[in-house]
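Continuing the series of single-chain predictions for the mutant panel. This is the parent chain; the variants come on the following pages.
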Amino acid sequence: MKTQFKNYMSLTKKEWNGMVVLLVLIALVLAAPYAYQRFHKDNTINVTEFNAAVAQLNKANPQANQLNDGGKLQSVALFKFNPNTSSVADWQKLGLTAKQAAIIKNYTTKGGRFRKADDLQKIYGLTKVDYARLAPFIVIPEGKAATNMVVELNSADSAKLTSVEGIGPGFAKRIIYYRERLGGFVYKEQLKEVFGLDELKYDEIKGQVKVDASRIRKINVNTISFDKLRLMPYLDYKQVNAIVEYRKQHGNYASIADIGNIAIIDDGILRKIEPYLVFK
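Parent structure:
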């Protein structure tokens, strides 16, 4: 039995040599990836140089190909454009993505304006490569046809307000809403009380607007109801309630000094509301 097993497991010299060759080949195959990594180094791409090359190529060839939002190549034909009036479709034709186009259009719709080509670089999501490609085609007319026109805030409708450079439909709606609650503007600095209209925006538009204080709507403090007085932006709920209750207890107000007797209404509030009150 032992002899038969030995004969079965024994190898000829030829078979042994074949096995050695097979083992060597297996070892070489397993070692090949490690040897490749050791002796072959990948070239590192210089991103700055690559972007500069792309920008130069696009500048030299306006009929460029860009990837759209779906990752497919689309033909881009650059043309002269005004960033203040371009539509979402125009921006996409210029090679921007739908998201980039929407961000820019949202900016102009809310009253944002590009006064010079460099202003486009402030847009979030617009790359330096995009700007370098578009910059030679930006055309911004100097001023508006109605540059010398000054808009009166207490009589202007929404269309008139949007003619002010820096005021879009969104800001126009907010200004009118605040004007109605207030009863009109006594001075144009009150625009800074409108939601979202900060000091920078005010500085941008103040030279294009004026106020006719004779147009404000006066409040008869001796007859106005709680609900209507509650609309006055300068008074909170407790102050409105105090004015009405004081009137009930002490009779009609004769002057602003009488309202000053209410403890929770200070001099700052009095100065703000005085132009809107009448005492009949």
